[in-house]
């Protein structure tokens, strides 16, 4: 049974990354390593997974998919890949159309809701600096802030933002603040 304060990632998040974005792209060695962790990518996802499994599973993925990249860049690319590959599904195309209809500003304002549908611990706070510039604080990145950077970049690009830029401003404990801008 899950404790009320236990951090978990919901099964739909695992489904999105492992069964949609990464479907057929992981090596046999990576799939075996994930299986030893209890994450069987060909099975129906569990309702939730401990956050303590999420980070090591993504470590396996980035080392498998991007072995020649620095870890930070590999995580950024994985975050982008999550958004772009999921947007190629029927549900993702609907989400993409909604994102375009909302536009970058309103999409950014809704992203906390999207993160809350992925897990029970990530919260995003926005501070508007200008109509196309925000400071975004994410309370928990599990030590992979560039993963969230990639998600935000790809989501803004998919919503029609021209030249979206997401930069780390500062780390704050296990959280991170980014400056987000577009034209």
TrEMBL record:
Superkingdom in the source lineage: Bacteria
One Pfam family hit: DUF2378
Protein name per its UniProtKB record: DUF2378 family protein
InterPro entries, alphabetized: Mxa_paralog_2265
Alphabetical list of NCBIfam families matching this protein: Mxa_TIGR02265
